């Protein structure tokens, strides 16, 4: 049985990994003023962050449309017996809803399971990669779906921000808190729990924030897979990934935060995602 894997670009999977595992990525949209771009198709991550810093109006993002999913599902169903569509937390985006509406149009010509990971970025990405590995060896659709769903509670993500400015501009925190944080030079850390970002810690320096991220991995126990994500600091991400590899014996996948999170995270964001064994 041929089972295809679909996700959306908020998963931040590097293109090389998506191609290696045969994963179809549906792009989200980012809008600067009256111009709309498809994430990583019409605009690269570097172009996005450059415009984020210099464009006079703060950008917005929007989920793929139901028709985007219809087009993908119909195309894949030509060669697939079933599809597992794995996405960003429904509390953070309307992407799951768009995927479900697309499924209703395409089904029952091809069985489709839409999964809300309750995660984001490589929290989703790691689940998607595991899903591709599962369907490569599992020919039972429902069994594969259940195995993928079991990954959700084992997936964890934390993020450190260089500034609260972009979280405030995106409406995630109040402007007063952003101003206070910037004055005190606080580096906030958030965690994802049940599909929502919650405060995790505060650091007084960049180095301390990175140590806190490393500490989360230290306390996680046995790790099945792990990733470091960054918005604009690849060398920093690489250094943390190398330390984590020594810690857990797993090669940490390095990914770049795309426009969907970049709107809120801004430059200098660093994040950690992992699946426990």
What does this structure look like?
α3 crosses α4 (95-106), α5 packs antiparallel against α6 (141-149) and α9 runs parallel beside α10. A six-stranded mixed sheet has the order 10-9-8-13-11-12, sandwiched between helices. The relative contact order is 0.17. It is an alpha/beta fold and 277 residues long. It folds into two domains: 3-152, Rossmann fold, CATH 3.40.50.10170; 154-276, 2-Layer Sandwich (Hypothetical Protein Tm841, Chain: A,domain 3). β9 (187-193) and β10 form a beta hairpin. Helices cover 42% and strands 26% of the residues.
Keywords:
Hypothetical Protein Tm841, Chain: A,domain 3, single chain, 277 residues, four-stranded parallel beta sheet, six-stranded mixed beta sheet, 13 strands, Rossmann fold, 42% helix
In brief:
This protein has 277 residues and is an alpha/beta fold. The chain has helices at residues 15-20, 45-54, 66-76, 95-106, 122-137, 141-149, 165-169, 175-184, 206-219, 234-248, 259-265; strands at residues 3-8, 23-26, 29-32, 35-38, 60-62, 82-87, 112-116, 155-160, 187-193, 196-203, 223-230, 253-256, 270-276.
Distance between the termini: 27 Å
Q: What is the number of independent domains?
A: 2
Low-confidence stretches: 172-181
Number of helices: 11
Radius of gyration: 18 Å
Secondary-structure blueprint:
Blueprint (H helix, E strand, L loop, with lengths): L2 E6 L6 H6 L2 E4 L2 E4 L2 E4 L6 H10 L5 E3 L3 H11 L5 E6 L7 H12 L5 E5 L5 H16 L3 H9 L5 E6 L4 H5 L5 H10 L2 E7 L2 E8 L2 H14 L3 E8 L3 H15 L4 E4 L2 H7 L4 E7 L1
Parallel strand pairs: 1-2, 1-6, 6-7, 11-12
Antiparallel strand pairs: 3-4, 3-5, 8-9, 8-13, 9-10, 11-13
Helix pairs in contact: 3-4, 5-6, 9-10
């Amino acid at each position: 049985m041929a089972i295809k894997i679909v996700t959306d670009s908020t998963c931040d999977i590097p293109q090389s990994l998506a191609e290696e595992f045969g994963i179809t990525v549906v792009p989200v949209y980012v809008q600067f003023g009256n111009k709309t771009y498809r994430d990583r198709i019409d605009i690269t991550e570097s172009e996005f962050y450059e415009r984020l810093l210099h464009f006079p109006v703060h950008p917005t993002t929007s989920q793929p449309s139901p028709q985007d999913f219809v087009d993908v599902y119909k195309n894949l169903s030509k060669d697939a017996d079933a599809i597992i569509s794995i996405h960003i937390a429904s509390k953070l985006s309307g992407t799951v809803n768009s995927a479900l509406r697309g499924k209703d149009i395409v089904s029952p010509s091809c069985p489709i399971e839409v999964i809300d990971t309750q995660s984001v970025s490589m929290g989703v990405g790691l689940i998607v990669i595991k899903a591709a590995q599962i369907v490569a060896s599992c020919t039972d659709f429902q069994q594969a779906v259940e195995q993928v769903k079991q990954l959700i509670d084992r997936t964890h993500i934390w993020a450190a921000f260089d500034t609260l400015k972009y979280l405030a501009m995106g409406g995630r925190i109040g402007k007063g808190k952003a101003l206070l944080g910037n004055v005190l030079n606080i580096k906030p850390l958030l965690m994802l729990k049940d599909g929502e970002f919650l405060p995790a810690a505060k650091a007084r320096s960049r180095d301390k924030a990175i140590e806190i991220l490393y500490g989360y991995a230290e306390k996680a126990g046995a790790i099945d897979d792990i990733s470091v994500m960054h918005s604009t600091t690849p060398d920093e991400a690489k250094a943390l990934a190398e330390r984590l590899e020594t810690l857990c014996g797993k090669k940490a996948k390095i990914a770049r935060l795309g426009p969907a999170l970049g709107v809120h995270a801004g430059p200098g964001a660093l994040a950690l995602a992992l699946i426990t064994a």
